[in-house]
Structures are given as structure tokens and as C-alpha cells.
Input
Amino acid sequence: MIINILLFIDFVMLAVVIIGYVYSSLQERRYLRRQASQSLELQQKVYQAQVLKEINERIGYSLDTGKIVDIITSSLGNLLEYDTVSYMVLEESGKVIFKCHVENTVNHEFVEQVKEKMLLSYSAILNREIKPSVVDESVTGNILDDNLKAEVESFFNLPVVISEKLVGIINVASVEKGRFGEGQASILYTITNQAAMAVSKLQAVLESEKGKLAAIIYSLADGVVMVNTNNQLLVSNPAIKKILGLEQDKALTMFDVVDGLAGKVDIRTKIEQSLAEDKPIFVHEVILKDKALELTISPVKNSQGEKLGSSVVFHDITTEKSLDKLRQDFTAMMVHELRAPLTAVRWSSESLLKNLSVANGADQAKVKDTVVTIETASNNMLELVNDLLDVAKLEAGKFELNVQEYDLVGLIQEQAKVFRPQAEQKHLTLNVTSPEKYLLKFDRVRIGQVLGNLISNAIKYTDSGQVEVNLAANAEKKEAVVSVKDSGIGVAREDLSQLFSKFKQLKSADRSRKGTGLGLVVSKGIVEAHGGRIWAESAGESLGSTFYFSLPI
Amino acid sequence: MAKILVAEDDKLISNSLCDALKAAGHEPVPAYDGEDAVAKAKEIAPDLLLLDIMMPKLDGISVLWELKANPETAKIAVIVLTNLGDVETISKILEAGATDYLLKSDQSVDDIMQKVKDVLARSVKLA
Output
């Protein structure tokens, strides 16, 4: 009995031990199993990440849709088990590209089935029928064996969307039933999604850069064209049409460019030369109608140094040229104006020397005449040099005024008195209308210079009639306005604004009336230094002109 | 002795030239602007014209054109005296039919008198 009891206890204990063992081993196995599945998941994730990284790297800077989908599908083999992986891309031209990669040998029928399923799915997404006649098909990978019995038993299609645009469909298919579950679908989805996102970002960056570049080229004042290596026009901007004198709404072709430059530059030869020599070529001063152009023809290469074509930049140098002409004319004028009195001085001294060396004594009257000539010529030259110095001072901003209160009327009368003999010599009347006295703060010497300049100009450019000087106060504008009105040759409207420019004299071809025009430039500087304005009005050529200047009250 | 028209608006230069011409035994006639020069050329039929370029009313080149266009004055020998030494002006002067040109400030009065003598001798031979 006791033995029985002991045996029972033993049995119970054994059972407890066994149960305990079984339980613990079950626990352990469950744990191990969980661990195994966890590590599988982890492994999958690591793998997925690696594939994504690889896809990202391989996509690089390619935005070729076909290439991207190709990259995605070729990376899937590591993650999914399938017999074929395919993609279908609908090109803008309407052509459908179908590529199928055979992992495990199937037959032609299998590939046909995959294609049909994809076309069907594509049509459904696009909501229109895609005709199989425009399908560009290619099958790669393992051989197809029509003796093999192979049916598409399981598959799924996944749309690839980049930048919210459907670019294609990926398909995986298998001869096995139920091969693709939720897990596989999720892997494929994750991968395509990630790749698409990477591409979208890249595309956005490139689009924005392209947009910026396009905007720069579009708004450039220089004409720009780019051609590929077959001399076909790739890029052009509105400026080029303007330069070639073509209508803005007409599409530009390379023919227009070649035609526009015909007889001036053989642009095609220059492009070829630039490509062959692999360096920019400059064509200086191409005169096209009323424009002067400078062309720069440069080879265009990508980052790999591959030649993509050539760019031609048309830089309009008309303004530079005309400025250059103005500068030359200005110099010629200065040379003339300085040489004239120098000539007089030289010839007079020569004659003086001769006269003084005459044995029977110099002719006193003649000597006096000659010396007067020398004096006058020297004064003329001094005046010109002073004008030049004043202009230089103005330009350097080193013009100083000695401002005090003076009677402006007194100064006007004084200047009129100086110039009256000159006016009378030309049978002109010189009148002054003004209040009796007008006190104002100004630099007496400098404003005298302005008055003298305006009055002498009026006399110089008037052959008959009168010159009228007027002073009136404009209380509203708080300024005193002096006007010098003549009945002379007048000024053409388009030249009015140029009158006070350093180079203005040269615009008119009329060199018959001497003068450098520097006086007006200096006058403008003086008046503006006083806070006043200077301007001119004229009804037109031969209708007289009125010059005004104002001084603040 | 030759009759020489001096078309020069600068009185100082004109006087110097006239004095020198007189001293050399010629008969100078001054004209102080372009229109005056054309009128006097027709009126007095000078043997030689000394012509300035920058003159009031009508510039020297226009004076040349007018004289050359008129058979009465086309044969007058013309020496252009200018201060504009640029190639453009010089070629315009020669195109317009001037016999010779001199850059004023580069010459002494004696040089100019020598030139006058040369040109007059040549035109006498031609005549």
C-alpha cells in the first residue's frame, strides 16, 4: 500500500516533471519560432532596404521612365519569387512598350497572357482601349519552351505613379496558384512607391532647375539658339527672332537662322568648326540691317564630356558701337577745337618772328595785330580747356559753389551787356524782361557762366530776329525761372533730351556751326548743383528754341 | 600773281593766310562761310581755293560738291585745309575732288605757301 502510494507520488512527480519539460520545451519552441519569424522579417526588411538603395543609386540622374521601371523590375528578383516580371509603358506618341523578363522558363502563350492582362489593366486605369497593334514588345531572360505546359495561375499588376502621373505598370506572374499574397504585394508596392518618390523628387528638382534656366534664356536680351549634332534647333528665345527680324509667333527653324545670316556668316561651318576644335568661336561685328552683332559659338557637352550640340549666342553690340562712335566723334571735335586756336597762335608767332627780323624795322601796327590774334586764340583755347576741366570736375563730383545772396536781375543785365555787341553784329536784338530786382542765393560766377552760355548759344544759332531773356518767379513751385528765347534754327524733338549730354553736338551732322556743346553740359552741372533744373523747348527745326533754368527760392 | 579764294570762318586763321598770300605776291579774297565761298568762286573764278571744312551755313565738303557739280567752277584747284585728321574725313575730302589737303596745325604758313606754289604750277602746266 505504502509502495503504491509512493509509486503514485513518483508518477505524479514524474508527470509534473514531464509536463513541466514539455511545457517549457513548447515555450522554448514557440519563442524560437517567433524569433525565427522575426529574424526572417528583419532579413526581408534589410533586403528591401538594400534593394531600394540599389534602385536609388541605379536611377541616379536618369529620368527616362522606361529605364526607371527597368531598374525596379530587375531588382525584384531578390525579393520575390515569380516566373516572369514585366512592365508596360505608354509613350506620349501612343506607342506601348512591353518588356518581359523570364526568370523561369515558360512558353509563348504565358507571355501573351501576361501582356493581355497588363493591357487590360492599363486600359482600365486609363479608361480607354489600347490597341495591341502599337505594342513594342521584347522578351529577355530564360528561353521560352512551347512544349512546356504553362498557364498564368497567379499574378498581380501594380501601377507606377511618378509625380502624380501614371508612367507604367509592373506585373509579376507565376505558373503556381496563389503564389502572390498580401506580403508580396506589399513588398512590390513599397519598392515601386519608394522608387517613384525618389524619382518625383529628382524630377521636381530638375524641372525647377530647367524652369529657371528656361526663364533665364527666355528673358535674355542676347539671342540664344542651341542645335544638336545634326544641326536641328533645340532651344531658342524671343530675342533671337527680334534680332533676325522674324515674327514672334512663328516657330523658328535652323533654316531661318542660316538664312538670316546668309552672306554675313556661314553659321553651319562655324558650328562644325567649333565642334571639331572643341572650343568657342567668336565672330566679331556682324552687321545685320541696322544692328551690329557679336556671335559666340560654343560646343555643348554633358558632364561626361559627350558632345550634345552647339550653342550660338547673338550679342547686340549696336549701343556699344554707337557709343564708341560718339566717343570717337567727341575726340575728333575736341581735337579740332583745340587745334584751331593753336594753329592761329602758331601762324601768328611765325609771322611775328618774320616781321621782327625784317631789317628795316618791324611794322608796329602789324605786330600789334598779330599779338591780338595770339591773345584771342589763347583765350578761346583757355575757355575750352576750362570747360573740359569743369566737365571733369562735374563727373568726379568735385564741383564747389560759393553761394551768397545776389541780385539775379543785375547779373542778367550784366551778361546781356557783354553779349549785346555780338548780337548787334548779327543784326539781332537782345532784350531782357524781368522785375527790377530779384534777390536770391546763388554762386554769382557760376550762374553768370550759365547765362553767358545760354545767351551766346542763342546768338550763335540765330541768323535773324531776336533773343529774349526773361526772369519770372514761380511761387507754386518755389523757383525762379530764367528763359532765353531765340528765333533761330531750333532743335528737333528727338534731340531735345540729348542737348545736355556730353556727346550731343555730334548727333547732328551739322558741323557748320562750331561749338563743342560742352557749355550746356557744364551749365546743367552748375544749375543742378544749385538744386535747380535746366531744360529746353522747341517747336521744331527752324522754329526757334527756348532754354530754361530754374533756381530754388 | 594768282587770284586765291580763302574760305575760312576763323578770322584769325583767315587773316594769317591772306597776309602770307599777299606777301607772296598773290591776290587773296576771303570768304567767311560756305555759302559765301560758293558765291565768290562763281563770281571771281579764282585760280585756287583754300578751303576749310568746318564752316557755318555750308561745310567744306558740301562746298566741294557744289563746285564740282557746276561746270563753271569744276576746274578750280582746291587745297583743303582742315583740323580734322581722321581717315574718314580725309577720304571724304579726296572723294569730293579736292586737289590736295593739309592738316592745318601740322603746317607752318610757309609750308602752305609752298603747297600753293606747287599746285598753281601744276595747274598752269595742265592748262
Summary: The radius of gyration of chain A is 47 Å. Confidence is low (pLDDT under 50) at residues 506-512 of chain A. Chain A touches chain B through 24 residues (CB under 8 Å).
